[in-house]
Specification:
Layout (H helix, E strand, L loop, with lengths): L1 H15 L1 H6 L22 E5 L2 E13 L5 E10 L2 E5 L15 H10 E4 L6 H7 L6 E5 L19 E4 H9 L10 H5 L4 E4 L6 E3 L4 E5 L8 E6 L4 E4 L13 H10 L5 E3 L7
Parallel strand pairs: 4-6, 6-7, 7-8, 12-13
Antiparallel strand pairs: 1-2, 2-3, 2-5, 3-4, 9-10, 10-11, 11-12
Amino acid sequence: MMQFLSKLFFFFCIIQSPFFSRAQDSIHEKPLLNEFKELAKYNTPIEYKFDSITVYAICTGYISTNKKYPEPVFVWLIKTPIGNYLIDGGLSPNITDPDYFKGISKTVFNHQFDFYIYKTNNLTTQLEKLGVSKNLKSIILTHGHFDHIGYLNSLNKVPVIISLTEKDQIETFGQAMGYEKGTENQIDFKRCEVIKLGDNEIKTLNKYISIIKTGHHTKGHMMILVNSGKTKLLFTGDINLNSLPHDNEIYKFIDAKFKISTLKLFFNHDQKL
């Protein structure tokens, strides 16, 4: 009897552990407040078609910064004729757990941010419904902040692309530069293709996708350019080009290279898709 109770206690301890909770991809549901209910329309993936490319805006939850109006946090699924790609990894399903953050980031982030999340925001479930959960070529990270890497543990068989500068910033400075404690463990650099780029340098991954290191927001931040044929789509991460002054270095570079007025812009936190 005592042996049985010991095993039961051991099992109970395991299922209560944060590691088990994250590994099981559980959702700590915290729905939007009534005054924000209209935002829940983003809980269903939004489809865009551009010639040979299909894009899905997949909402992984909502974030309010300093008590401001919440914004949906998107992951972008890019379906191309040569394979499917994810841009970023979204909010973790455990983000509303008060003990999710550790160290300095717990003190700072729990004070600065409010999070709202539904079971329908589960990224792995949404990818399964879209039929691509086992058919992803890679996850391209714009940068390594917590709201862009939340599901990387759940998608641990998918290669990740990150800039060398971003990797160095995470490993060298970590929480001091606004990254979550343990970011390097969530990203798992062993499975990463680390891209070495200078600011405003462009690397072509294939005929459809190129990456641009912007060096703004974080030092290793990247934008992703998708060429659908007739239309160019620019996924700008946490840099909203429309809010930048036109004499800003990044704005001038992108405009000179691609003509911003001709691009379809996709921003990670945006209520006006």
